[in-house]
Amino acid sequence: MRRFNGFIKGINFGGWFSQCSNEDEHYRTFIGEADFKKVKEWGFDHIRIPVDYELFENSNGFKYLDEALDNAHKYNLNVVLDLHKTYGYSFDDGEGENGFFESEKLQEKFYELWDKLAKRYVSRSSYVAFELLNEVTDIKYCDIWNEIADKTVKLIRQYSKDIKIIVGGYHNNAVSAIKDIDIDFDENIVLNFHCYEPLLFTHQGAYWIKTMPKDFRIPYHTSFSDYLKIAHEHNIPLIIDDGVKDLNDTPSPQFFENLFKEAINIACKRDLPLYCGEYGVIELTDINETLKWYLDIHEVFAKYGIGHALWSYRKMDFDFENERYDEIRHKIIG
């Protein structure tokens, strides 16, 4: 499997140009040049920058993004430019499925936006990669998403044959959806997934999961049988089947290796890089338990050369910048 060179150790700048107030003051102040310098000094090689379509409805939107890319280049950081939300579609509960996959008009706005982005940024292909859309939700969108993604790749390829284009699948970029990505692959396509498994651990106490008790806490090395029992009691999704051989076991690097095995095999067969664009642990979790999770998943990322960008640098309920990470941050980054 080919490595995604230059995009091996990354961090998300979530909440800056996406999932935010969409006001100039926020765009100007949430992240600055010093933050690019800091993540470079920490040891990251790239930043994933989520952007919502609203950014480009701001008269200064492209200016803000230009400045971000200039700062990344200044500090020798590569960038994944991720379209996090588009017209008529968001992965967020309550915002989401507002006609994008059914409306040719909304799809045309998606193509028009990527046409603008491609024209403006393919000249930066030495350090910028494009991610077409964040977290397609339902499997029912699989076929139409493949059509949209394929058409968008062809559009971008009119401007550049070598810029890296990152494509994920349904169930919020689940690793199990890699097998159903069906586009006209070329050597500069990157297969993308996200991983927050076991969700009951990484999202313990998460307020946005409606059935999650806000005071719920769980240690990482809980048996899978208990994970399943608790998840069932609270009606919380838990995708562990492909990673578990014995329900008496607890999470380990082998769990993640089993979970990723099919996607790794597909990437090897297609000779394409595999990239985990989001993964992380909510800030409510005990910091030593958090470290255990990161060390296990990183062992598998390193073994197979899987590029990755943890979620997220500042705030956003994950807050890797927070001082609670000061003693262990270097152990996580490696």
What does this structure look like?
With 334 residues, the chain is of the alpha/beta class. It is built from 11 helices and 8 strands. Strand 5, helix 6 and strand 6 form a beta-alpha-beta unit. Helix 9 runs parallel beside helix 10. The longest helix is centred in the middle third of the chain and has 18 residues. The protein starts with 8 loop residues before the first strand and ends with a helix.
Q: Looking across the biggest beta sheet, what order are the strands in?
A: 1-2-3-4-5-6-7-8
Q: Give the rounded overall mean pLDDT.
A: 96
Radius of gyration: 19 Å
The SS-based structural class is alpha/beta
Poorly predicted runs of 5 or more residues: none
Quote the beta fraction: 5-15%
- The secondary-structure element order is EHHEHEHEHEHEHHHEHEH
Cα-to-Cα separation, first versus last residue: 22 Å
Number of strands: 8
Sum up the overall morphology in one term. Answer: globular
Largest sheet: 8 strands, parallel, barrel
- Tell me the helix content: 25-40%
How many helix segments? 11
Short description:
It is built from eleven helices and eight strands. It is an alpha/beta fold and 334 residues long.
How are the SSEs ordered, and which strands pair?
Layout: E1 9-12, H1 24-29, H2 33-42, E2 46-52, H3 61-74, E3 78-85, H4 104-121, E4 128-131, H5 142-157, E5 165-167, H6 170-173, E6 189-195, H7 199-202, H8 224-234, H9 253-270, E7 274-279, H10 287-304, E8 307-310, H11 329-333
Parallel strand pairs: 1-2, 1-8, 2-3, 3-4, 4-5, 5-6, 6-7, 7-8
Helix pairs in contact: 4-5, 9-10
